[in-house]
Amino acid sequence: MIELDGAVVTAYAPGETRRGAERVVTLLGPVTATLTERRVAVVGANGSGKSTLARLLNGLTLPSAGAVRVDGLDTARDGAAVRRRVGFLFTDPDAQVVMPTPVEDVALSLRRLGVPARERDARAREALARVGLESRADLPVRALSGGQRQLLALAAVLATEPAVLVCDEPTTLLDLRWRRVVDALLADLPQQVVQVTHDLDAAARADRVLVVDGGLVVHDGAPGPALEAYRALMAVDDAAEVVTPARGRHTGVTTSRAEDDLA
Amino acid sequence: MTLLGAHRTARTPLDRVPVGAKLAGLALLGIAVVATRGVPASLALLGLAVVTAAVAALPPRPTARGMLPVLVTAVLAGAYQAWARGWGPAVEVVADLLTLVLAAAVVTATTPADRLLDALARAARPLRRVGVPPDLVALAVALVLRTVPEIARTVHEVRDAARARGAERDPRVWLTPAVLRLVGRARDLGEALAARGIVD
């Protein structure tokens, strides 16, 4: 179970000073929500704060106010334990894969778990087989296609058997075929999956959808009404002119599942 | 796959040598390169590295491509030495640099990264007493080795982009974005390691 308890993320605005002090801007929040569903989608415009929300969940970003807890573990206090429970899949697999070959990269994840050296190779190959990459295990990572690299990144995360998987736009860089492959793999996982996405078909398959805009969760509920709200938010003022997104109006009031409709 | 970027599928006698022995050999070669003086000695050590690379069945073309940035650096250093101290020291500098990088490439090509990490972590174990985690030291060394082809590839891409805009002659046009991209890449890498819990 993931709990966001009034979580706020702030940052210093570089180069902007007011009376000698750097200006602090709020990137996200406050966000209060309890995520218990198996499949949660997070949608929102570019720069809306949805990736920041995802990064909060495994402690990559820490809240400057409020708290984020995973199964009762605080991301600020118990960061290492949280990361053992929460795997994170980035948009760009090249940012995530660090070793020269797939089998070595998955083995790197297994080192962290303390798996003995003699077992690592076999277990890494098993993890690669689960995503259909067994025949690519010893190739240089650069010889893999973008889709295969994303599967490798997924295999490296799943090898550590996390309880929760957070994916930040995992299919954005992929063509339709690879998108379907990754979607199918994610759909079959036994773990809770929180997926940031621009793919509304993927979001429609979730149990719950959070719509993020301007750093706030402006809608939280079942996919139908949530995606309707998102489409309304993304409507452009005048398609013929320069595209200006119609911004959602923020009341500053945090939405949570309890407060919002789930019907 | 070597950390210089050349892929090899061959299994040679060098692949079966224990990783500790290979690292010790590399260290001894490093000492020999520093301790010996004169062009004949430098060329002999370079010859030894080339023969070892041949025994390890390193594919010549990809290896040469991977070593290109090192060759450029070596030639620049050699040119300075030629101007300051004459041709003898210049040849020595170029040969010594190529010897060490080629020998390192042989070690990384014939050793799986996972086993290399284990060996480096074992070697770094005494550092635990002063609070330095050996696994992190090993990972840092492996990442530095891996970064060499990354840098070469990034510079190549950025220069291509500059060429496409007809501006490759001005080094500022490609050097600045190359440095920015490499810094960004290093940050992404750090984040990815943190997300995977590898640096916890």
Automatic annotation (TrEMBL), chain A:
Belongs to the ABC transporter superfamily. Residues 2-239 form the ABC transporter domain. Keywords: ATP-binding, Nucleotide-binding, Transport. InterPro entries: AAA+_ATPase, ABC_transporter-like_ATP-bd, ABC_transporter-like_CS, ABC_transpr_CbiO/EcfA_su, ECF_ABC_transporter_ATP-bd, P-loop_NTPase. PROSITE patterns: ABC_TRANSPORTER_1, ABC_TRANSPORTER_2. One of its GO terms (cellular component) is ATP-binding cassette (ABC) transporter complex. GO terms for molecular function: ATP binding; ATP hydrolysis activity; ATPase-coupled transmembrane transporter activity. This is Cobalt ABC transporter ATP-binding protein. Pfam families: ABC_tran. It comes from Cellulomonas pakistanensis. It comes from the Bacteria.
From TrEMBL, chain B:
It is found in: Membrane. Its main location: membrane. InterPro entries: ABC/ECF_trnsptr_transmembrane (IPR003339). The keyword Transmembrane helix applies. One of its GO terms (cellular component) is plasma membrane. It is a multi-pass membrane protein. It comes from the Bacteria. Keywords: Membrane, Transmembrane, Transmembrane helix. This is Energy-coupling factor transporter transmembrane protein EcfT. It comes from Cellulomonas pakistanensis.
